[in-house]
Amino acid sequence: MVNKQNQTNKELVSKANRLKFESEKIFALNKKAQDTVVPTSKPRPPPSKEPNLFAEFSSGPLSSTTASSKGAPTYQMKICACGEPDPQFKGYCENCVKKLKAKFDKLLERFNKSKTEYDSFNSQDIGKADEKLKLLKNKMAQYGAIDMSMVDVV
Predict the structure, then answer these.
(1) Max alpha carbon distance in the chain (Å)?
(2) How is the chain split into domains, by residue range?
(3) Which residues pair with 29 in a beta bridge?
(4) Residues 80 and 87: beta-carbon distance below 8 Å
(5) Using CA atoms, how far apart are residues 71 and 62, in angstroms rounded to an integer?
(6) Which has more pLDDT, 74 or 26?
(7) How far does Cα 75 stand from its chain's mean position?
């Protein structure tokens, strides 16, 4: 029993010594970090500008919109989604607009057909529901379980 207590005491003392050493080490590192002065860093100079390898193409009929030539008008090339040059209607050529309108009309026609089917189907159901409500009200009145508040609910 005494040996066991001595052993646990030794373990506790060694653990306490280890924690003390680690805390002293951390405090020393913290003090060293606080004492060091961080040198102010100078801003880096901007990187040197690379020469423009496409300068000879910046003017003329092949020039792009990003070409920076002073005083020269820039030509902005516009292409339709189908590949036609110079679209007239907000990025689409006349053929694409006709195709889109035909597709829109076709889809609108399909929608109208399904809408009429839905309305006819729904109107049949509403008629059946009204009939059932009338039968239910009559049955409630027949059994005497009708109240004015229940009539409002039903």
Answers:
(1) 103
(2) 93-154
(3) none
(4) yes
(5) 17
(6) 26
(7) 36
Burial class (CB in 10 A: 0-12, 13-18, 19+), 150: exposed
pLDDT tens figures, 50-67? 777 666 656 555 455 554
Distances (CA, A) of 72 to 59, 76, 120: 8, 13, 66
Residue 109, amino acid: E
C-alpha angle 136-142-148 in degrees, rounded to nearest 5? 70
Cα distance between the two ends of the chain? 86
Helices in the chain by DSSP H: which ranges? 2-35, 94-143, 148-153
Cβ atoms of residues 74 and 66 within 8 Å? no
The answer, as to whether pTM is greater than 0.70, is no
Q: What are phi and psi of 89, to 5 degrees?
A: -115, 85
Cβ atoms within 10 Å of 146's Cβ, excluding its own: 15
Token pair recorded at residue 106 = 């076709």
Whether the Cβ atoms of residue 106 and residue 94 lie closer than 8 Å to each other:
no
Rounded CA-CA distance 135/152 in Å is 15
